[in-house]
Each structure stands twice: as C-alpha cells, then as structure tokens.
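Aim 2 progress update. The chain analyzed this quarter is reproduced below.
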Amino acid sequence: PGPAADARLARLAQKAADTGSLGVIVRVDSGDGKPVEIAEQAAWTKDDHTLAAGDQFRVGSNTKTVTATLILQQVTENRISLADTVEEWLPGLVEGGEDITVRMLLNHTSGLSDFLLTPEFLPSLTGQEKRTWTPEELLAITPEQDPPAEPGETYAYSNANYEALGLILEKATGSSLAELIRKKITGPLKMRDSYLATDADRDTGRQHVTGYEPNAGRLKKILSGTVDLPAGVGFAGPERPGDNVDTSAIDPSWSWAAGGMVSTAADWQTFLTALNSGELLAEAQLRQMRTTVDAPEEGGGYGLGLIRADTTCGTVWGHTGGLPGYSSEIYTDATGTRSVAVFSSTNFGIKDKAAATANKALVEAATCQMLGKPQPSDSPAG
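Predicted structure tokens:
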C-alpha cells in the first residue's frame, strides 16, 4: 500500500458514488498513525452538502457492538449473567421470555422476529408517520419468526433483541443508555463527535452527512426480487435528482440500543480498535464476544454484537449498519491494530445491482489495504 493504492481507492470511491452510493467516506488506518481519508460524492449532491471525511454519520446497527460491550462489562462486574433469562429482567415484556437468555439476544438466536416491516412500524421506518416509539412498544409488536424457531436454535438477525438488551442495561445499572454510553465508551475514549440520537436534530457543530433513498417507484424496482412492496410505499422527504429522496429528516431514535448512534469514521474506529485490542473488556468477555454462530448473510459468523467477516484478504471483526439514507461497514484486524470504515449515504440505493457491485469492490479494496495486502486486481477501478 502506498500513493498508487490510495489513488486507486479514491477512484473506486468515486465510481461507487457515481454508480449509486451517492456519498462515500472511506478511512483506512493501518496503525501507523497516518490514516488514509477519502470523501467522494456524486456531483449533484454537492448542492445539499459538501462531504468531508470527518462528517457525522448515522452508524445504525454498529451501535449493537456498543450495546453488547456495555452488557459484557456488566457481566464482568457480576451484575448480569449471559445465562439470565429475559423474563427475569423484563417480566411479562417478551413472549416466551423465560426461555430466552441474554446470550441469545446478543447473538440473535432468540427466536424473535423483527418489528421493522410490520404494518404498525413501516410508516415510521419510512418517515411517513412521525411517531416516537418506546422500546417496550416495539417489543409488543415484534412477531415470532416464520417459520417459528425455538430459542437458541437458529441465527436470525432482529433489532428487537437489542431493544430488549437496552432495557436490561438500564435496569441493571439504574442509568439511561445515553448516560452509560457517555460514561463507559465515548467519554473515556474521547469520542467527541459520537452520541445516541434522541431525534433527527443534529446536536453538535460537526457537519452531518445528508442521506438519500430511491423514491417509491425506483425502490419497488430495486427490491422486487426480495420484498414485494405495496405500491406507493416510499421514504418521506424532498425529491432529489436521479429519482432519489433526501431522508435526513427521518427520526432514527426508535433504533436506540439497536442502531441509534451518530459518529464519525475516526471516532468509530477508535472504539472498535479499543474493543478488539482488549482495552474495554476482560479477556474472558472478549473471547465470548468473538464466539460466533454461522451467519452467512453477514459474510461469516455473528458473535455477541460482533460480526466475523471472512474477506478475500483475511478475517476481520466489526459490524455493519443501515438506516434510511445511511449504510456503513467498519472492521478491525484480529488484534485491533488496523481498522477500516466505509460509509455510503444511501442504504437501499446500494441494493441496486450495479451500485452493489461498485460498493462491494470498494469495501474489499479498502479492507485489503487495511490488512496490508494488495487490493484485488479484478475489482473494476473505472
């Protein structure tokens, strides 16, 4: 890796932005104190926001790694056990909670489905309905998996698991989740640009990335192979060029312990580096966190709030995130010395075939560069 690799990475980032990612931030830290920072965007998006590598971004489900870290810190302090049941902590709140353990919530083997696409919640996800949801209300509308799965049986990713974990944390500590994150994570690690969002307002002076999604017509086309969207279902927000909608005003606060954090590439890499190098957890708990169940859709395995991704250039640890207008992948090597972050200012836009290919090539090249390996030569640099 050197200037030529950096230039190639910038070209791949621009290609991804032009093909459908719209705005792209890439940050590669090889642990040598000289991170490579790239911000590229589709030309028309400059009318809304000039992208910089240090901009704030909704990191979505990467938040799960913070929630899991907080739980495991409480395990070290003997306040919570991984074998505790949901019913013990949250009586009557989760159906079948007496058979679901904290560990099952953490690694998504609880048997709970997700509330995201339920008819009650979908209008809030798309921003068509402005409603503040409590974690308790979200758990109440969470359906069981179809076909049903016994707790502990199979991996099935669900935001409901982490809404429950957030409530357990608050109960175990007597503190709010936002307070715990400040006290145990962002404060000690000096992550000054990171916070738990309580609404769509930006509460710091940092620039915040504008997020976009395809409009209703284009969304239906992109998802036609996977989800049969009812006609007219689309994201709320001002129309933008290329059949896109600006989704920045959609309130992400419902995602809370499952996905509510706002951060920057540098801040989140600071967190993941501290975690995977053993700064935040006792060795036994970090080992538990990295004990994975098979999760092919995550590119490898899922531990306790941590993804093991088996990439072309080696195994990396981290998470991914997706909220309306925001998609992210952040990983470190096994020792937590090197890290990589790739942010895109759309989530569903990169599910379009050409955009998905360009985004995958970018993530792969950035990950290989982070690991000190040559970038795969077959990825189209354009």
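The CA atoms of residues 26 and 38 lie 5 Å apart. The domain at 3-370 is CATH 3.40.710.10 (Beta-lactamase). These observations will guide the mutagenesis experiments scheduled for the next reporting period.
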